[in-house]
Design a protein that fits this description.
Blueprint (H helix, E strand, L loop, with lengths): L1 H16 L9 E13 L2 E6 L3 E9 L2 E11 L3 E26 L2 E4 L4 E3 L2 E16 L6 E20 L4 E21 L4 E12 L2 E5 L2 E5 L3 E12 L15 E4 L2 E5 L9 H17 L4 E5 L7 H21 L7 E5 L20 E6 L1
Parallel strand pairs: 17-18
Antiparallel strand pairs: 1-4, 1-14, 2-3, 2-13, 3-5, 4-5, 5-6, 5-7, 5-8, 8-9, 9-10, 10-11, 11-14, 12-13, 15-16, 16-19, 17-19
Helix pairs in contact: 2-3
InterPro entries: Bact_OuterMem_StrucFunc, Beta-barrel_OMP, OMP/PagP_B-barrel, OMP_bac, OmpA-like, OmpA-like_sf
Protein name: Outer membrane protein OmpA-like peptidoglycan-associated protein
Organism: Inquilinus ginsengisoli
Length: 356
């Protein structure tokens, strides 16, 4: 647990210390995480020809981990995940409804605590879907959920009762996910997330004893990293170092892939436009947002508006009267460089400032 705490603390410090970068690329990604799994108490019902009762099985917190491969479509992404959890049984509290002596039924006893050696091990195979909340920031909150199967194995050993058994059962599994991703580079991201991992009930037998295992429920906290492949499109992250003008009173402001955050170069271009607007006493300033052709039309339309609004806010911060600025987004409809659908062309990720 001490090692885990150091790992998580280091990940948090890295997130806070790393300067803001572009949002992540889109496409195939690989990832892994490690953290802690905290299982809830399980209720086991058992019965045999002489005894009937229930056991509340408590398990210790322990290290957990996962690996996954997926595809990022933009706001939505999906992946296939393999996870591992193994938690030791800490103690078992038995309650007996009844037991038999000879031909007679005898009332049971309750709250009999028994020290048990053993563990529950779960290998989960899940299909997950996520929604990322993009705000033009390197921090991207997300929510998700998944379904799949948990391959569970329980090992139980009670010396005083001469019990030493191991049994396995595949169970239907589901999970809810909430977390935040931090884009270190366009391809690398760090994640910190919570997963509620639940399964259905299981049934097994041990000798002549039938056991119904209560639905396992787990609270898992993971920190990890994700790498997204760009397959040779790294040039799409390039931002020009100097203003590009289309005329005497026009400016182009370029953006990183799938981002509405102004880069330092873009901020400098906007400042130059603001200075010229104040000096030239402009009566109208048109701010038009554009995107490249990767992504859906609806998503790109919304992204173009966010880019235009980011430029408007910076112009106002630089002293331009907000009432002079007209903002609109045209999505991917008016590319500076014509391309096929799906192409990440850096010159098309822009905002045009036109002053009259």
């Amino acid at each position: 647990m001490k090692t885990l705490a150091v790992f998580v603390a280091g990940a948090v410090v890295a997130l806070l210390a790393t300067p803001g970068m572009a949002q992540q690329a889109r496409g195939i990604y690989l990832g892994t995480g490690a953290g802690v799994n905290i299982p809830q108490t399980q209720g086991w019902d058992f019965s045999n020809p002489t005894t009937k009762g229930r056991a509340d099985v408590s398990l210790d917190a322990a290290v957990a981990g996962d690996v996954y491969i997926g595809y990022d479509f933009g706001a939505f992404r999906t992946d296939l995940e393999a996870s591992f959890r193994q938690n030791d049984i800490s103690n078992v509290l038995f309650g007996f409804d009844s037991f038999r002596r000879g031909r007679f039924a005898v009332p049971g006893a309750s709250d009999v605590k028994v020290d048990v050696d053993g563990h529950e091990r779960t290998i989960g195979l899940m299909a997950n879907v996520y929604y990322d909340f993009e705000f033009g920031s390197p921090f991207v909150p997300y929510v998700g959920g998944g379904i799949g199967v948990g391959f569970n194995t329980w090992k139980v050993k009670v010396k005083d009762a001469d019990i030493d058994t191991e049994f396995s059962s595949p169970l239907f599994a589901y999970q809810g996910i909430a977390g935040v991703s931090y884009s270190i580079t366009p391809n690398w991201a760090a994640n910190l997330e919570y997963r509620y991992f639940g399964e259905t009930e299981g049934n097994t037998t041990s000798g002549d004893t039938k056991i119904k295992v209560g639905a396992p429920n787990n609270h898992t906290i993971l920190a990890g990293f994700k790498y997204t492949f760009d397959f040779g499109q790294a040039a799409a992250q390039t931002v020009p170092d100097s203003p590009v003008t289309t005329g005497e009173r026009s400016y182009l402001v370029f953006f990183d892939f799938d981002s509405s955050k102004l880069t330092p170069e873009a901020t400098s271009i906007v400042a130059s436009a603001a200075t010229d607007a104040l000096r030239g006493e402009s009566t109208r300033i048109g701010v038009t947002g554009h995107t490249d052709r990767s992504g859906t039309d609806a998503y790109n339309q919304a992204l173009s508006v966010r880019r235009a609004d980011a430029v408007r806010r910076q112009l106002v911060a630089d002293g331009v009267d907000d009432t002079l600025i007209a903002v609109r987004g045209v999505g991917e409809a008016d590319p500076l460089v014509p391309t096929a659908d799906g192409v990440r062309e850096p010159q098309n990720r822009r905002v045009e400032i036109v002053m009259n």
